[in-house]
């Protein structure tokens, strides 16, 4: 567990986060960084799919409250996240593994620090527990 | 007799409701009986599995399999029928998605055994006996199927050609499916033999639904006197219609109950629960954290509601322990 590095997927809205930054150099600093247009575009399916594919956490960076370019996309994301955190808990995935932050950073300078901060918290939680497979059936699924 | 196509109907981890649904096609069942030879139907006819084992591979034209795969017996029967059949139809919500018993994927095998053989108030089990796959009694070896660690849909155990969801599937779609097989007019392999739209598209209440609406509170159906012609979501009652495939004949809506999702996700969608989360978030009128909490916490058991029939085929499939 000493060298354990959590797999964190970070979605960020291009309208508030890093739009004047050099995306290539920022992408080098932040693994699994997915800039998108509007946090409301992040479907619940994308979030669950990230966990299905082995993510230890998902972080969503959206526009400040009241400042969504599409009126209320960030609120949509916030409501989804709240319900999905409850869904994840039922599946045995701690709710702290899904976070949303609504703020503004055009230069994207704080993104690596925010990601690191969440990664550190995830590291303390450890990896997501594995869904135990039935020995024989596992090969068929 | 010999020229008629052979058909097998079999139940795995199911309640028998799907077999009942076949009988519910009423007198049309006589036409089916005229057109085919049944070679297996444990609920209704006295054929044995060794009769099927004696058949050639692919000799059965169609196997209609209902129920999920919960133990090694279900798996063995599913594999036998797959081997002997040209076509396999996953029949009903359990075979297609795991069904209501699939909610057991939120509980471990150990917890289930603890409850059933130790903790349930009606259990008397002083020796603490648990089912074993093998044991000896009076010098004879007895065997039981192995109870798997989770519930599987039929497609997880064998290759499935077609799907007909529903709890149970309605008579018109059953007849369509059987007729399509008999006439050889089948869609591409892997298709679901139902309409492809979402239930809201065919719901009669859709006509009275305002183009924009929001809700400030989630109510359960028993807490209100539901207005029979108004969209349930407008009334604040969770209805899975936006994320569920149509074709059921709106049986629940007709008796003033919201959709529970037994037809599974619409075409092209894998996880209907996730889609419904997005749909619900869009109509909840709340922006502040405490308002969101107030509305969303009105849902007692979100995962149970979202995946009532489809937990084993949902993206996350089962609880991590």
Keywords:
heterodimer; A: 141 residues; alpha/beta; Rossmann fold; four-stranded parallel β-sheet; 4 strands; B: 321 residues; 3 domains; five-stranded parallel β-sheet; two-stranded antiparallel ribbon; 14% strand
What is the number of domains of chain B? 3
What is the overall pLDDT average of chain B?
95
Classify the helix fraction of chain B into a percent range: 25-40%
Strand line-up across the major sheet of chain A: 2-1-3-4
CATH architect. name of the largest domain in chain B: 3-Layer(aba) Sandwich
CATH topology descriptor of the largest domain in chain B: Rossmann fold
Q: Termini of chain A, distance in Å? A: 29 Å
CATH topology-level name of chain A: Rossmann fold
What share of the residues of chain B does DSSP label as strand, in percent? Answer: 5-15%
Q: Identify the CATH homologous superfamily of the largest domain in chain B.
A: NADH:ubiquinone oxidoreductase-like, 20kDa subunit
* Shape verdict of chain A: globular
Shape of chain B: globular
- Give the beta-strand count of chain B: 9
Oligomeric assembly? heterodimer
What is the name of the CATH architecture of chain A?
Answer: 3-Layer(aba) Sandwich
- Backbone structural class of chain A: alpha/beta
Estimate the helix proportion of chain A, in percent.
25-40%
Helix/strand order of chain A, N-terminal first: EHEHEHEH
Largest interface: A-B, 36 and 42 residues
What strand order characterises the main sheet of chain B?
Answer: 2-1-3-5-9
Explain this structure.
The complex is a heterodimer of chains A (141) and B (321). With 141 residues, chain A is of the alpha/beta class. In chain A, 35% of the residues lie in helices and 15% in strands. Chain A contains 4 helices and 4 strands, in the order βαβαβαβα. The longest helix of chain A has 18 residues, at 73-90. With 321 residues, chain B is an alpha/beta fold. In chain B, the strands form 3 sheets. Chain B has a 5-stranded parallel beta sheet, with helices on both faces. The interface between A and B is large, with 36 and 42 residues.
